[in-house]
Amino acid sequence: MKKVWVGILGLIVGLAFYGYAISGDNGPEVITFEGGKKGTVTFHHLKHQKDYGIKCGECHHGKDHSPYKEGMKIQKCSECHNKDMANKKLNSVKKAMHKNCKGCHKQVKDKHPNAPTKCKECHIKK
Question: Which residue of 49, 74, 115, 122 is surrounded by the most CB atoms within 10 Å?
Fold first, then answer.
């Protein structure tokens, strides 16, 4: 009988965590960018939100570059950051990510010494 109650309790806890995870639209837990020859980048999206307190608007923005606001549709970065973009410094997802992610990591390096800033620290070859 004890095993049944432990199983039921486990199911309840699991469903509670699942409900919490899907209750807010926080995006995916992990995002993977295929880096070709350089290697794959695994971005821990939820960890940056929850553990580091990074707000959506610090990375996501509208077409007019206004920071993300609640309810704004988040599109793939490549919708704007592509070869057609006038700003040649940001005309690819790679350039946008390097500017935003690497730039942020350099800023927080004193507080978070493990924040990767070198190519091989983010781009992992399989």
Answer: 122
Which residues have a Cβ under 8 Å from the Cβ of 63 and sit 6 or more positions away? 80
Question: What's the mean pLDDT in 44-62?
Answer: 91
pLDDT of 63: 82
Secondary structure of residue 88 in the 3-state scheme: coil
The annotated binding site for heme c is made up of 45, 48, 56, 59-61, 101, 104-105, 119, 122-123
pLDDT at 44: 94
- In the chain, the domains with their CATH numbers are 28-124 (3.90.10.10)
Binding residues: 45, 48, 56, 59-61, 101, 104-105, 119, 122-123
